[in-house]
Amino acid sequence: CGGYCETDEDQDGVCDVHDCGQPLTYQGYSYETVQMGVQCWFAENLRSENRNGDTIPANLNDIEWSSTVTGAVAIYGEGSTTCTSDSPDIDACVPSQSLQEYGRLYNWYAVVDDRSLCPAGWHVPENVKWWAMTDWVGSWDSNVATHLKANFGWYYGGNGTNASGFSGLPGGNRHHSGNGFQQGGNTGYWWTSTPNDEGNAWSRYLTWIDDQLIGTGAAGNGYSIRCLKDSEEQPGVFLSLKIEGVFDGVSVHSHHGVAQGFPEPRVKGSKTLLPHTMDSKKATLHHSWDTQNLL
Known about the structure:
Shape: globular
Order of helices and strands: EEEEEEHEEHEHEHHEEEEEEEEEEE
Largest sheet: 3 strands, mixed
């Protein structure tokens, strides 16, 4: 194509140009994509076994999985004697079925490895990018989780509407302690690329029974991955972020602001500290307070 190509999957010498909403081929798999506000997301979980051509360690048994502190990948039900399936559509503990339905599960060490999991021009989204997406969905109404969940595949009729096109499925997790594969069919987990405190990182999860969206997970857990197209937005774009939950028995519903390109909220002990040093000419911080982490 006369220069550097971010992607040339068919190796025809012509740079691949991707329009959001069209399928994208990456490492032999075709992924649906979806426009969500100003962002372009994979509409399926990642299935990749490689990072820039380097194979990610796989087929680990429970002892190996629990002890590794480097990147690793698994298929739900693979390499463990402990596995549960609550899927109404498949046997999630059969790896060939779970790979097709849920993609692969990655520990967080694989997420933050310099060798990217996602295609060139895409990345594992930061916590603030997830906030922007769910805030966009939440601008329609309060049923964010329902709009993110697929309209099939959830335990006990817990399907969503998939109005967002995100097509969230309950891919379960592989537990960091070596307790095998859990919650396939009833809960979906997705990593962000943002650390929380030592040994943990921010994540998102959806369940069959309620509308939980934000959480943290041990870095050794195996969660699903979604890729987000690199943004052309400039630093200083204000994002309105929701905080809601129950703290000390009191229901809290409020908002705070974080601007793209500015520091992530800093974590200290059991507190999340919002940044206080933003340039007021570029961003507005609606509120500034300390709040307990949402678990």
